[in-house]
Specification:
Largest sheet: none
Low-confidence stretches: 86-93
Number of domains: 1
Shape: elongated
Radius of gyration: 17 Å
Order of helices and strands: HHHH
Structural class: mainly alpha
Length: 93
């Protein structure tokens, strides 16, 4: 019974830690998009500059995907100043 409680506590702690990291990642994405000049938001520049935002040596592909799952065109339109999404980003749903 104590082992089950311990495992449950570990699961809750892991989930809370991952939520915290997801929130931090989304804040980093928002900061990157708001602080990067509009003319630098080209696909090539985003690919270069965005790597540092997503860099987490402890996260695997699945974890990063889950952290970024909230991002889509509508959430980006809310985060960015008017007109910043004037060029279509084909890779976003």
């Amino acid at each position: 019974m104590l082992d089950n409680i311990r495992l449950e506590v570990l699961d809750v702690a892991d989930a809370a830690s991952e939520r915290e990291k997801a929130i931090a990642t989304l804040a980093d994405v928002e900061h990157y998009l708001l602080s990067t000049p509009k003319e630098a938001l080209t696909p090539q520049q985003i690919q270069l500059g965005f790597k540092s935002v997503l860099q987490d040596s402890d996260a695997d592909y699945q974890q990063l995907s889950e952290r970024l799952a909230q991002l889509n065109r509508s959430t980006l339109n809310v985060s960015l100043p008017n007109g910043a999404m004037s060029q279509p980003l084909k890779h976003l749903p």
